[in-house]
Amino acid sequence: MKTFHNPLHALHQGREEMFRGRMVPCHEVPARLDYVLAELQRRSQGELFTPEVDDAALDAAIARVHAERYTRFLAGAWDEWVAMDPANAQRDALPSVWPLPNRHGFRNDVLPANFAARLGLFSFDSGSPLMAGTWAAARMGAACAVAATRSVLAGDRAAFALTRPPGHHAGPDFFGGYCFLNNAAIAAQALRDAGMTRVAVLDVDYHHGNGTQTIFYERADVLTVSIHGDPSTEYPFFLGHADERGDGAGVGFNLNLPLPRGTGFKDWCAALERALDAVEAFDAQALVVPMGLDTFEGDPISGFTLGSGDYDTVGRMLAAAGLPTVFTFEGGYAVAEVGTNAVNLLEGFCR
Ligand code: SP5
Ligand code: ZN
């Protein structure tokens, strides 16, 4: 399987994230990608590429998923942050104030003049620092997703977009959960735009793919399925419950499979079987897998107990769907093991 990796990923390198009232070192670090890349090389798992960027085509692919005012904000956010106070150049930008939607006459169409207010308007947590290189890294990540999609459209059975920052928490006009551009959604939409009539997204990250769900919630042409820690106790908390089935034309085309903290591989596998049944019933023509490895027993911020060897089985089960498949790299914070776990999954898929 070809891997398209992001040569600019390390331009995004947050220092600290807010957690329960204190600043803690970021979990989403550049070494995560480096470990995966090194393991792909060590095990000779497929060919490695960096994406060729056609600026107009890339911006068009991003604009199919994200609001123009959001990407414009992201592209200029660092300069605005520094313009607020030159000393800001020494620290990451982190949101600290948010609107309460649908309350107090809040109007989403009015952009606040204050940068900190706009930073909050376009985000949902204070755990996702933005810095000078965030936009360049995220945009090149979207290029990886587009390149992986093109390789699958050209006939490859599967391809891997190895990029960070991750994407599945990013919505049409918001960042959060370490994510800025939704690489999986960009891939799914690019598959649709190339003529695939039904595309399924099967998210196996520990955390609910709230951004992807939001992007496709009212659509019947993209099935979104997510297996994740029960949002009643797990991040991102406000979305990911089993009764969220889609809206309007999209009713029946979103499936959430929340599992309690502490779930092991046997029960997780049963959920994957259900997810794959839904993909089959949908009669998908292509599959996108936001691949989070934070379901691992050693993950420092998550609560499932999959072992390294289990990812081979996960890969084989995904392959059994028999669909052209684009993988994107999402969570997985046991840094020293994330390469082994990711490549176990990809090798399992290729078996
Ligand atoms: C892509 C992805 O996996 N995003 C996950 C974002 C999770 N953000 C909240 C993390 C809470 C950190 N908890 C630290 C616990 C330290 N003991
Ligand atoms: Zn995650």
β-strand amount: 5-15%
Task: Using the coordinates above, name the CATH class.
Answer: Alpha Beta
The class by helix and strand makeup works out as alpha/beta
Bound molecules: N-[3-({4-[(3-aminopropyl)amino]butyl}amino)propyl]acetamide, zinc ion
Count of discrete domains: 1
Mean pLDDT: 97
What is the count of DSSP helices, taking H or I runs of 4+ residues?
A: 10
CATH architecture: 3-Layer(aba) Sandwich
The helix fraction, in percent, is: 25-40%
Radius of gyration: 19 Å
Give the N-terminus to C-terminus distance in angstroms: 11 Å
Low-confidence stretches: none
Spell out the CATH superfamily. Histone deacetylase domain
CATH fold descriptor: Arginase, Chain A
Helix/strand order: EEEHEHHHHEHEHEEHEHEH
Biggest sheet character = 8 strands, parallel
Shape: globular
Pfam families: Hist_deacetyl
Keywords: Hydrolase, Metal-binding, Zinc
Protein name: Histone deacetylase family protein
Domain Histone deacetylase: 28-346
General description of the model:
With 351 residues, this protein is of the alpha/beta class. It has a single domain, classed as Arginase, Chain A (3-Layer(aba) Sandwich). 36% of the residues lie in helices and 14% in strands. It has 10 helices and 10 strands. The strands form 2 sheets. The protein has an 8-stranded parallel β-sheet, sandwiched between helices. A hairpin with a 2-residue loop joins strand 2 (16-19) and strand 3. The radius of gyration is 19 Å and the shape is globular. Bound molecules: N-[3-({4-[(3-aminopropyl)amino]butyl}amino)propyl]acetamide and zinc ion (ZN). N-[3-({4-[(3-aminopropyl)amino]butyl}amino)propyl]acetamide is lined by residues 19, 127, 166, 169, 177-179, 205, 207, 235, 292, 294, 301, 330-331.
